[in-house]
Specification:
4-stranded antiparallel sheet, Aminopeptidase, 11-stranded mixed sheet, single chain, 378 residues, globular
Length: 378
């Protein structure tokens, strides 16, 4: 097998994209929009170094790979590791990362040619990662929000597996939103109805628009909302208006915008992606202060959409224990880590093993706080 790195995702062989599934974030339109809009670039600390595996001129696998000079936009936090390196006079940056930039969503992490399995190609990809780390002076490699097959591969290769916990919704055969409400305890059912009623009483209603329905005016308004979310935290947004313009033209069939209007005027917006099984909540912002609107636009509208379209899963985004009381259960996530320095690799192995005990305990405790009636499951 032969390995080489690509400086742009558009350089990947077309045959690999032909075999890709419909997961929206490991798609040429999404990844290319990140690079072509400048969100992912050397200037932003995300230098593309995509790893291509070939044999006799045939593309076998592609692992998106980035040389990082910081850890922003990853959502798996390793500040302590960086500080430990610095304390010992070592450079933690640059480092290599395989993830979907700015997107803390579990899912596929590499492209495989037809007939090629991860079991066959994976060890060569990880060997390529180590070789690339040596070539570019990187301290480590981090695979974030990995699916089960990648977790198994990395564990077999002796990498450190780190667990996290997020919240996700799953259809349990509810049939509709009312069926979902009936599965909840009476207290939570009344609370959700009150939250939705509160939004309406403030003169606000929501519309769901597919990507093909969105105009430039819709996108301009959404981007103002998106910017506002970051401004409220004193930050600049990761993504530009050009990025959203690119995906609007290249993957509209996988986009959903929830537009909230107050007395007929746009007030807030939430942007979602979806594939055949799952809805992904990604970006939200509001230009008006409306009580309970975040819950309506980002959660309840998404649940309704899933139930109407037959989507089984809804990933609303990272963090947020407030999701628990609205029917989003705790699910474990996994990242894998390899550090070139043996002593630090051993220390990280011990750390993640100890941390996992607490993460699993947290998940079990969170399960006890789900709002479903005992006989309804959930």
């Amino acid at each position: 097998m032969y390995r080489r790195t690509l400086a742009a995702i558009t350089d990947a062989p077309a045959t690999l994209w032909e075999s890709a599934g419909d997961y929206p974030f490991l798609s040429l339109p999404f990844l290319a929009a990140l690079e072509q809009s400048g969100a992912v670039s050397k200037a932003t600390g995300w230098t593309p170094r995509h790893l291509l595996l070939e044999e006799e001129g045939k593309a076998l696998a592609l692992l998106p790979l980035y040389r990082k000079t910081h850890n922003r936009g990853e959502y798996v936090f390793d500040h302590g590791w960086a500080e430990a390196y610095q304390h010992h006079g070592l450079d933690y940056y640059p480092r290599l990362v395989s993830s979907i930039p700015f997107t803390p969503v579990p899912g596929p992490r590499c492209l495989l040619a037809p007939g090629v399995s991860l079991e066959a190609a994976g060890p060569a990809l990880l060997a390529g990662v180590r070789a690339e780390a040596t070539a570019c002076g990187a301290s480590s490699w981090h695979g974030l929000f990995l699916p089960p097959d990648w977790q198994a591969l990395c564990e077999q290769q002796g990498l450190a597996l780190r667990r996290g916990c997020q919240f996700a919704w799953q259809d349990q055969g509810y049939g509709g939103f009312e069926g979902f409400l009936q599965a909840l305890t009476s207290k939570r059912r009344k609370s959700i109805k009150a939250e939705r009623r509160r939004v309406a009483e403030q003169g606000v209603s929501c519309r769901r628009l597919g990507g093909a329905e969105l105009t430039e005016e819709h996108w301009d308004f959404f981007y103002r909302c998106y910017q506002q979310t970051y401004a409220e935290h004193g930050q600049r947004p990761y993504l530009s208006r050009a990025f959203f313009g690119a995906i609007a033209g290249s993957m509209p069939q996988q986009l959903l915008l929830v537009l909230a209007e107050a007395h007929g005027q746009p007030a807030a917006a939430a942007l979602f992606f979806h594939d055949k099984t799952t809805l992904y909540g990604r970006y939200w912002g509001a230009l008006a202060n409306v009580d309970c609107l975040h819950f309506e636009a980002c959660y309840y509208q998404g649940i309704e959409y899933c139930l109407e379209r037959g989507l089984q899963h809804f990933d609303p985004g990272t963090q947020g224990e407030h999701k628990l009381s609205r029917g989003f259960g705790p699910v474990l996530t996994c990242s894998a880590h390899w550090l070139a320095e043996p002593a630090f690799m051993a220390a990280v192995q011990r750390f993640v093993q100890e941390e996992e005990t607490y993460v699993r305990a947290y998940q079990q405790d969170a399960l006890q706080h789900l709002p479903f009636r005992q006989e309804a499951g959930g």
